[in-house]
Structure formats: structure tokens, C-alpha cells
Amino acid sequence: MSVFQYVATNRVSGQRESGRIEVASESAGISILKDRGLLVTSMKAIKSKGGAARGGRRKRVSIDDLVIFCRQLATIVNAGLPLIEGLNILGEQVENATFRKVIKQIEKDVEGGDTLTDALERHPKIFSTLFVHLVKAGEASGMLDEILAQLSIYLEKSASLQRKVKSATIYPTVVMTVAVMVVIVLMVWVIPVFEKIFEGFGAKLPMPTQVLITISHFTRDYWYVLLAGGFCAGFLFTRYLKTHKGRYQFDSILLKLPVIGSLFRKVAVSKFSRTFSTLLRSGVNILVALEIVAKTSGNKVIEEAIDGMRASIKEGESIAGPLRESGVFPPMVTRMIDVGERTGALDEMLTKIADFYEDQVDTAVAGLTQMLEPVILVFLGVIVGGILIAMYMPMFKMTTIIKGKG
Questions:
Q1: How many C-beta atoms lie closer than 10 Å to residue 147's C-beta?
Q2: What's 60's DSSP letter?
Q3: In what order do the strands lie in the sheet with 16-23?
Q4: What is the pLDDT of residues 174-221, one digit of tens each?
Q5: CA distance 76 to 70
Q6: Three-state SS for 368?
Q7: Angle subtended at Cα 112 by Cα 131 and Cα 69, rounded to the nearest 5 degrees
Q8: Where are the domains of the chain?
Q9: What is the C-alpha separation between 111 and 103, in angstroms, rounded?
Q10: For residues 213 and 208, what is the distance between their CA atoms, to the nearest angstrom?
Q11: Domain 63-156 fold
């Protein structure tokens, strides 16, 4: 989002007005001001001071911020307070300065005649497509407070699921980082000390020791090559993931991995079920709901399976059939969706599936953590132990020679 300074003429009163507006582009700003009854005569971009209402660095708006926003706004709307007044209250008490500024802008847009949906759409980096569609459904049905409450529950569940997945990766990531640092220290500082000692022996070094010393030399002399190689590999891999084919292949491999693939599949099924259920319960059209679910799935394989299901539904087929043919979702999920579709309780069945798979993710994360601990320790033992043995082998050999001479 960019901040623009504008000068405009009020079409009704003919008075000249000036101010600032935060929008994605200049054309979007002109369009918004036109809707407010203003004829723009000048608009130019100005430098933003980090997006904070009180200066300082721009702070990211977290899911927790959105959860609190939804719950408080739902309470305010349910209490019968005007929406503008509710936004004003929230804008004053929000701790996140960036989010406070956004809420103040939303309040101005709503006060200027925009719907809450239109105001939220102007901040796509904060309010997702799913968020906007649910609010739109709430405004259209007159159940904004109920849908905001549902949205807060959905966001809480999503945040909880993300934390579970992160907790499963933190331990191995930290241990592997420490392992790499230990190996670098051994290669750069420890092995050269042993190398000088070995030079005094005047004997031929064992093959493992020679290989290790060669690797140490290369690490010290050509560290910039290794650094550049790592950077290039990371850059190429990132570019590869940005392509449709690359992302699809990577996500497909993730789902097929021996142990961790099962965890990713359970997370994907849980997210699909929870999102789809929330949208249907809020009254969003099923085709629109599936489009949103596909975009927010986070996995290209799942996304294409949902797109295929959406295309089949357009032709009059059931939901469960295309879902079963995709081969991505477990049989239990397709059976439960089929039952829910036939009984008219699809949203309830999807909620049950989401709850079940969230429990499965809990179990999988706990089991994965317990399994990874010994595996990582063994891996570290082999790497560090192998280096130490290779460095002490010449000493063992010299001890044997000395004893033989004695």
C-alpha cells in the first residue's frame, strides 16, 4: 500500500479539499475519492514513515490481532452500536500501531459511504480473500456479528494448527544448525592444529584423515565459493518454487515423504475442512467457497484437486465423487463428505473432519518429535564422531609403531 497526497473539489459544495489516502495505486485512490463525491485535481505519492501511527518501525499484523479484532467487533455489532463507532473504539485501543492506522482508514472509508467489505478489500495484505468474503456474506445476510464470531474461531484454529507444525520443525532445525556450526569450527580451526602435529610425524596419513584435511583446506581457502554456491542454490530453488510446475512437484514430494508426508497431508485435510465448513456455514456460495478454499490451501496438489472438484460440480456432479477420484484425500474423508452431502449437513460433517484431523496432527507432532530426537542424536554422533576418529587415527598408528619399536 502507498500513501498519496491529494487535492480535490467537492462536487456538491464546490469547496476545495486536501488530505492523504492509503491505497494500492493512484487509479484506485482516484476511484475511491470519486465515490466520495470528490473530483481529484492533483494526486502524488509521498513517502510513508513505516506505516506506524506513532512513528517507528512497521509492525506486522498477526493472526492474534485479527482474532481480537473480530471478537471485539462482533461484540460491538451484537450490542447494537453503529459500525463506525465500533471501528472508532477499536482504532483507539488496538496496541499494534500498524493495525491501528489500518482500522482508522477503514473507519474513514465506511464513514465516507463504503461498505465494510469494500473498506477491507483495500488492505489485501492484512485481510485475506476468505476474510473479505465472510464479512461480505455477513453484511448481506444481516448476521455480521455471528459471522465475525465464526471467523475469530476459524482464525484461532488456523493459528493453532500453524503453531503445531512449527513446533515439529523447531527442534530439528535448531539441532541441525548447531551441528553445521560445530562442523565448521572443526574444519576451520581444530583440524589445522592437528595437521601441524601430523606434519611432525613424517609418516603417511590414513585415507580418512587425508580426505578430512583436504576438505578442511578447501573450506578455508574457498569459503567464498561455498557461500556463493549456497546462495545460488537457494536462489535457483526459490525461483523454481515460484513456477507452477516446480511448486506442484515440490508439494507432491512433501505429501509422499515417508513420515513427515503424513503430517503434511493431515494438516492439508484439516485446513481444507475447516475453511470449507466456515464458508458454507456463513452462507457463501459453494462454488465461490471452493475457489477460496483452493487459493488458501497452501499446497498446489490440494489446490488442483479442489479446482477439479469445482469444475465437476459445475457440471452437476456431487462433491464426494471428484474428491475420491483425485486420490489426495483419505477414503474416510470422502465417505464422511458423501454422507454430509446426502443428509444436508455438509458443514457439520466438515467441522467434525477438521476436529478429528487436528487431533491427529497433535498426535503426529508428538510422535514425530519423540522419533526425531534419537535419530538426530545418532546423526550428530556419526558426523562429529567420524571427524574425531579420522583425526585420531594417525595418533593410534604412531602409538602402535612406538610400542612395536619398544
A1: 25
A2: P
A3: 16-23, 2-10, 38-46
A4: 888 888 888 888 888 888 888 888 887 766 888 888 899 999 999 999
A5: 10
A6: helix
A7: 30
A8: 2-46, 63-156
A9: 12
A10: 9
A11: Receptor-associated Protein (1.20.81)
